[in-house]
Design a protein that fits this description.
- This protein has three helices and six strands, in the order αβββααβββ.
- It is α+β, with helices and mostly antiparallel strands.
- The chain has one domain: PRC-barrel domain (SH3 type barrels).
- It has a six-stranded mixed sheet.
- The radius of gyration is 15 Å and the shape is globular.
Length: about 100
């Protein structure tokens, strides 16, 4: 049907490699941000050093305890060219 979005499972994204269009490795997906809608549209991928702390909801309390401001690194979903074989490839110019 036209307009249907492909079904994707979060478990397939988490742990996947993230690479640029040129093949440079950026990191691995640690978490996925989605809309609260019942269909859960992906809005961003979380990756990087602080990603695990963010995923387990300890980044904010940890940062506040020590007076730090850390946000997890994210890639907006619209920067993704494709996702296949547990690899997220970014569009050219997005890194």
């Amino acid at each position: 049907m036209p307009g249907n979005r492909p079904t994707m499972y979060i478990e397939d994204l988490v742990g996947s490699r993230i690479i640029t269009a040129e093949g440079k490795k950026i990191g691995r997906v640690v978490d996925v941000q989605v809309t609260p809608d019942p269909e859960h549209v992906v809005t961003a991928l979380v990756f990087g050093r602080y990603g695990w702390l963010y995923r387990f909801h300890v980044l904010q309390p940890f940062a506040e305890t020590f007076g730090l401001r850390h946000e997890p690194r994210t890639i907006p979903w619209d920067a993704v060219k494709r996702f296949e074989h547990f690899t997220v490839t970014l569009k050219p110019g997005r890194d």
